[in-house]
Amino acid sequence: MTLLRMEPPEVVPAEPDDRTLMVLTREPGQRRSALRVLYERHQDELFGFLLHVLRDGSAAEDALQETFVRLATSAERSSGSRTERAPPGH
To answer: Cα(18)–Cα(41) distance, rounded to whole angstroms?
Structure first.
């Protein structure tokens, strides 16, 4: 009698929410992909908002880019300061 070996079904992870992605931006190995997902997820809505406020497409594009550059810079600084801190009690 031959037994069939059944492999467990492949689990497809759910797409991470924004909070999880923000945490991942602080991890050097995950930063780029997390920022990319955040950008792709929010660029249209944020651009629309900026266009409404600024009333200038070029200025809205610049502001959108600057927003994500600042997010990336902040995430990089945050991860650096976290690794430089001494553990509690030391």
So the answer is: 9
Distances in Å between the Cα of 60 and the Cα atoms of 17, 36, 69, 89 are: 25, 19, 14, 47
DSSP tag of 1 = -
pLDDT block averages, 10 residues each, the chain of length 90: 58 78 91 94 98 98 97 86 46
> Structure pTM?
0.69
d(CA 69, CA 43): 13
Please state, in angstroms and rounded to a whole number, the distance separating the CA atoms of residues 41 and 47: 12
Tokens 């249209």 belong to residue: 44
In contact, 34 and 55? CB cutoff 8 Å: no
